[in-house]
């Protein structure tokens, strides 16, 4: 299942589960609920650390690609 979300409206801990309410920007910049991500509290730290690590790796790749772009343009000139 794919869920598009561009915001978080609420985070709660209930019955040993972390519940993250996801939102989308709707008409007139209103927030529309997109769904709830539920993560076992015992795995929340591992999940978030894994996500943060993946985002850092992606950021490094994007920075490297941006640095290569000017070189490619110079080669075409």
Automatic annotation (TrEMBL):
Query: Per the database entry, which stretches of residues form a coiled coil?
Result: 48-75
Taxonomy, superkingdom = Bacteria
Q: Which UniProt keywords apply?
A: Coiled coil
Q: What is this protein called?
A: Uncharacterized protein
Question: Can you name the source organism?
Answer: Desulfonatronospira thiodismutans ASO3-1
